[in-house]
User: Fold NADH-quinone oxidoreductase subunit C/D from Natrinema hispanicum.
Amino acid sequence: MSETTEPEPEHERIDPKYDHRREEGVDETALEALLSDYAIGRDDHENAPAFVIRPDEVREVVRLLRDEAGFDHLTCLTSQQYEDRYESLIHLTKYDQRTHEVALVIPLPTDEPVCESAEPVFRTADWHEREAFDLVGIEYDGHPDLRRILLPESWQGHPLALDYDQDKPQVVRYAEHANPLQGDRHVPESDTMFLNIGPHHPATHGVLHLETVLDGESVADVRPDIGYLHRCEEQMCQQGTYRHQIIPYSNRWDYTANLPNEWAVARAIEDIADIEVPAYAQILRTMATEFGRMLGHFLAVSTFALDVYGDFTAIFQYGMRDREVVQDILEDLTGQRMMFYYFRLGGVCWDLPEPREEFIEKCRDFLDELPAKVDEYHDLLTGNEIFQIRTLDTGILEPEVAKDYGCTGPVARGSGIDYDLRRDDPYGYYDNLEWDVVTEDGCDNHARVLVRLREVEESAKIIEQCLDLLVEWPEDERTVQSNVPRTLKPDADTETYRAVESAKGELGIYIRADGSNSPARFKIRSPCFHNLSALPEMAEGEYIADLVASLGSLDIVLGSVDR
Assistant:
C-alpha cells in the first residue's frame, strides 16, 4: 500500500474462507415459537434475545434449546439479587455458530430462591451453580453436590446478597477429609488411599488443592478444591467506575497473558455504552493482544516441560528467554512489563513509541527469529521420546465431553473443536487479516501442546500484518482513542455478555447497569474455571503421574480460576 492509498475501512474485506461462520444472529421468531410453551416474558439484552422462564422448567428448556435448536455451549451462568427478587441467568450459544446466542432469565422469590439445576443437561453448570449458591444464596434443586466452592463450608452468609454483613466475624471450621468414593465404587480387592495434592505445590500451578483417591498408582477419583486465591474481583469491579477503575483490575486475573483480559472488559463496557473504536486503535489492540497471547503460550509450554519430565535447563529457560523478548516489546509499547493497562475505553492509551521505526524493527527482528525458535521447541519438547511417552494418549478429553464442560481455547481445539472467538464472533481487526484457527484431533496432553506452539506461529502472522498496516496508515488518521465522556452512566437495566479469545479460551464479561457510573453486577466468565472442571474426566483411571501432566496441559492460572 502506498502512502497516498487510503487504508481499508475496518471490517470491509472478509476472506471467503471465514464466511461459513458469518451468519446473522439467531432467528428470534423461531426461538419464540420453540419456547412458546415455556416463556412467560421477554427481556432486553444487548447481545442476545432473552426469555423469562419459570424456575421449575429450566432443565426442560435448556435441553430443548440444546437438542432442537443446537445451543450446545452453556457459556455463562450467573446470578444476582434485586430488592424484590433473585435472578439466575443462563447464556447459551453454539460451538459452530457463535453469533447465535440466547439468554434465559429465571426470576426467583426473595423468601425462597430455589431454581431447578441445569447440571443434568450441561455438566459445566455444576461449578456455576455452586458459585451462585456460594456467593448469592440461590439453591439449585436437583444439583448433585450443592455446596460452597470458593468459601469454606462453615462460612456464614452469601457475600453478594444484599443483606450480607461484611463486618460479621467468621469462624472457619477445620474438618477431616472424607473419602469421596461412594460405597458402590469400592472393589473388595482394591486398596485405596486418600492423597492431598496441594494446595501449596509446584505441580498445581498455584494454590490449588486436588482431593485425590488412589487405587495403587491409578487415580480412582479426583476433585479440584478451589477458592484459596479468591480475591473478590467481581465485587471490586462493581465498586469501580466504568471509565477508569475496572480495566486495571483485569490484569490480575490471568496475569500470565493479561492483555486479552483488558479487551474483554473494554468490549463489554463499550457495548452497553455504545462506544465506537477507531480502526487504527483496533489494529494496535490486535497487535498488542497477540503479543500477550505469546506470553501465555511460552509460559504454558515451558512450565509444562517442568511438569512432565523436570526439564528446567532447556525448555523452561528457552521459554523464559523468548517471553522476556516479548515483555521487552510490550514494555516499550505500554510502559509496563506485567500489569500493562494499555487499553482504554474507545481505544488504547497511546500510539507506538517513538521512534516508530526502531520499535517496528525490534518487533520484526523478533518475528524473523521466531520460526527457528519454534523449531527448537519441537526438537526439544514434542520430539522428545520421554515427553511423548508422558503425553501421547494421556489426559484424553473427547470433543463431546469438552463441550459438556464448556471447555474453550487450546483445551477445546486440542480435542478437535473448531472454535475461536476471534473468527466466530469477530472483534478488533481480526476479520481483516489472514490467519488460521489451529486444531488438533489427538484429544490428549500432547495435542494441547501442539495447538499452543502452532498458535504462536499464527499470532506471528497476525502481528506481521498489523505492523504493515501501522507503517502504511496515514499519519493524520492515526486516532488511538475515540471521544469518550468523562463519566459513563449506561441506562438502568442495560445488560450484555461479551467475550474475547484469551490465551486460555473464552473470557467473557456479563454486566448489568443500574444508571450509575458503576455496574450493578459484574460477572467474569473464566476459561480456566471451566477447563479445570473437566480435569476428573481426563484423569480418572490413569496413573497419578498422568494426573500431573493433565493438570499442566490445561494451563490454568488460579488468579483466573478463583477471581
